[in-house]
From TrEMBL:
Cofactor(s) needed by this chain: pyridoxal 5'-phosphate
Protein name (database record): Aspartate aminotransferase family protein
Pfam family, one: Aminotran_3
Keywords: Aminotransferase, Pyridoxal phosphate, Transferase
Keyword hit for Nucleotide-binding: no
Entries under PROSITE patterns matching the protein: AA_TRANSFER_CLASS_3
GO MF term list: transaminase activity
Similarity remark: Belongs to the class-III pyridoxal-phosphate-dependent aminotransferase family.
Length: 456
């Protein structure tokens, strides 16, 4: 596929874009240097307005699981737009795509899930879950059970509630968050915080922090615990295998609802359909977005367990919903996306072939002077850059080295995001071993250039 450079337009688009407030950006600085204009994508590559081709190791924003340029998805969307572009599901009505998707999701998720609610984004889905959790305990005549516990450095979205659930200090500071009723415990980040403990010990220790917090607050006041099976935006933090079973047990013991935020882990990223399957998590809610449509249309879905649904569906109006809940085009796209994942056996491929191969290749980087730790499950990985790998000593200030490396990647034709000084990998599930080899070659080069820049 040849690129279509539009050289004369780049500066024009950048000028127009000065009116655009970008998410998670220093906009003054961005307007100064000008945004990179992405004009086209195909397979696992992007093209910018200067005609540069980039290997996308981040699948957009963790989401383009089936890769770019899927004509069958475009066709399904086009057909749905002509047949029924929009109708709501508020007034005792439904439509074929939302009905079909609902049954499909119930069939493919763990057995406790027989009910699903729709939104447009992971953030609004997590907001909705908080409303459901509160309704649940109110209906159960335990209205004091309100507080939700989550983790430092967890990410659950950007609305006021989702950012409160999240544990990003820099997001809290922006708007006096968290809201009352949201508290945080430590994250299971063994490399960064585990000290001399084994991963197994550390996993249990971090789970114990949940029990300590519940006892501090009183179990009668605690409604739920939320976590990403693997923290994504926080730096691909993979908890030790002892962590989730212990969390699960504590939630049972103190009667907390358990929410698994599967927005990144879901739809095959870990080599399983859901991160919950990889860790053996049995939750009351699963938040799904991103990979559910591979980003071709906005959609989120919340799986609600029978335990919760039986209470919420007990003769009250659930007075909550969005104009675009169960949008027909988004649902039709999700169905086609899931069909592709299944037909091409992409989840199996990640599990059996490309996931293990990425692990093998990433581990080679441990010889590099900059690389303190590599970690991945399936096609979700991190490369943590440190100043002194023998003592796990980080760079100061944290984040500069990651940015240097990210910029080198861009110049070399590779999109790899950085969180602090960890490089994040989350490519399309269509990646072949050859794509992984290309990726490794560029990464090695970027790491060498970065090492030189920081004097290692
Ligand atoms: C991206 C993300 C969200 C938020 O989803 P949006 O669609 O951006 O609102 C929530 N949870 C996790 C784990 C995410 O990665």
């Amino acid at each position: 596929m040849t690129a279509q450079p539009k050289r004369n337009s780049t500066t024009e688009w950048q000028a127009q874009d000065r009116h655009h407030i970008h998410p998670f950006s220093d906009n003054a600085q961005l307007h100064e240097i000008g945004s990179r204009v992405i004009t086209k994508a195909e397979g696992t590559h992007l093209w910018d307005s200067e005609g540069n081709r980039l290997l996308d190791a981040f699948a957009g924003l963790w989401c383009v699981n089936v890769g770019y340029g899927r004509k069958s998805i475009a066709d399904v969307a086009y057909k749905q737009l002509q047949e029924l572009p929009y109708y709501n599901t508020f007034f005792k009505t439904t439509h074929p795509p939302v009905a079909e998707l609902s049954k499909l999701l119930v069939d493919m998720t763990p057995k406790q899930f027989n009910n699903v609610f729709y939104g447009q984004s992971g953030s609004d889905a997590n907001d909705t879950i908080v409303r459901m959790v509160r309704s649940y305990w109110n209906l159960k005549k335990q209205p004091k059970k309100k507080t939700i516990i989550s983790r430092t450095n967890g990410y659950h979205g950007s609305t006021m509630v989702a950012a409160s659930l999240g544990g990003m200090n820099y997001m809290h500071e922006l708007a006096d968050l968290p809201l009352p009723g949201f508290v945080h415990i430590r994250q299971p980040y063994w490399y960064g915080e585990g000290g001399s403990s084994t991963p197994e010990e550390f996993g249990k220790l971090c789970a114990k922090a949940l029990e300590d917090k519940i006892l501090e607050l009183g179990a009668e006041n605690v409604a739920a615990f939320i976590g990403e099976p693997i923290q994504g935006a926080g730096g691909v933090i993979i908890p030790p295998m002892t962590y989730w079973p212990a969390i699960q047990e504590i939630c049972k013991k103190y009667d907390l609802l358990l929410i698994a935020d599967e927005v990144i882990c879901g739809f095959g990223r870990t080599g399983h359909w859901f991160g919950s399957e990889y860790f053996g998590i049995e939750s009351d809610f699963m938040t799904m977005a991103k990979g559910i449509t591979s980003g071709y249309m906005p959609l989120s879905a919340i799986m609600v367990s029978d335990r919760v649904a039986d209470v919420l569906n007990s003769g009250i109006d659930f007075s909550h919903g969005y104009t675009y809940s169960g949008h027909p085009v988004s649902c039709a796209v999700a169905i086609e996306n899931i069909r592709i994942l299944r037909e091409e056996k992409l989840v199996e491929r990640v599990h059996d072939e490309t996931g293990p191969y990425l692990t093998k290749r990433l581990w080679e980087l441990l010889d590099h002077p900059l690389v303190g730790e590599v970690r991945n499950v399936g096609l979700m990985g991190g490369i943590e850059l440190v100043k002194d790998k023998n003592n796990r000593k980080t760079f100061q200030p944290v984040g500069d080295t990651g940015t240097i490396c990210r910029d080198h990647c861009f110049r070399l034709g590779l999109v790899m995001r950085a969180t602090r000084d960890t490089m994040l990998i989350s490519p399309s599930l269509t990646w072949t071993k050859g794509d992984i080899d290309d990726f490794m070659k560029l990464t090695q080069e970027a790491l060498d250039l970065t090492a030189k820049d920081v004097g290692l």
